[in-house]
Write a structure and sequence with these properties.
The protein is mainly α. It contains 7 helices and no strands. This is Small secreted protein.
Length: 201
């Protein structure tokens, strides 16, 4: 019953920094220094998001109890919300990137990250409010949350894409801290083999 949620999450929990860089050293050290400053702070938050995503993925067996799913999803959304807030603070504290229009790009990205934090906090409240005693109602509630998650994933990341384009994106892509981490949660061997494979992001 949690599969749709897991699929939605794997598609979009890490809106931030799916970076692939082509190397260009035109604007030298200033942009690289800025990227390092951001990426050093970003890595722990990306790790939190990856771990929260993995926790939801684990709770996708058909026989998962609604109360267990609710607990896992609630904790995951809280973690993702806090991570986005910290990402916003990291981009904010780094100051504008030293490129044309850097200040506007930075402000828009911070605004988006903070908005994502609020969206995930709202999802946590909705998960907490779901009826766990009735499995059918709970499944319907989860479907609504998955739909909302898809909306968060597909809208509102324009400024982040802009931040990750051009020289700044190239510089960030070179930083290990801005590369997508793998989750440190061990795979759940109790999950039934019939569980659908997780969607590749």
């Amino acid at each position: 019953m949690n599969k749709k949620l897991a699929a939605a999450l794997s598609g979009g929990a890490v809106l931030v920094l799916t970076l692939s860089g082509c190397s260009s050293d035109d604007n030298g050290d200033k942009v690289n220094d800025w990227a390092k400053k951001v990426c050093d702070q970003v890595q722990p938050q990306l790790q939190k998001i990856a771990n929260a995503n993995a926790a939801i993925q684990q709770q996708t067996a058909d026989n998962s109890k609604p109360a267990d799913v609710q607990k896992t999803d609630s904790a995951a959304f809280q973690q993702i919300s806090q991570a986005y807030k910290a990402l916003g603070a990291a981009v904010d504290s780094a100051g504008p990137p030293p490129v044309d229009g850097g200040e506007t790009t930075q402000k828009e990205a911070v605004k988006e990250l903070n908005a994502s934090s609020v969206s995930y906090a709202n999802l946590q409240k909705k998960v907490d409010a779901l009826e766990t005693k009735d499995q059918g109602k709970f499944a319907d509630g989860l479907k609504g949350i998955a739909d909302e998650l898809n909306k968060i994933s597909t809208s509102g990341d324009k400024a982040l894409k802009k931040l990750q384009s051009g020289e700044v994106g190239t510089a960030m892509a070179k930083q290990k801290g801005c590369q997508k981490p793998t989750a440190s949660v061990p795979p759940n061997t109790a999950t039934s083999p019939s569980t659908s494979p997780s969607k590749k992001s």
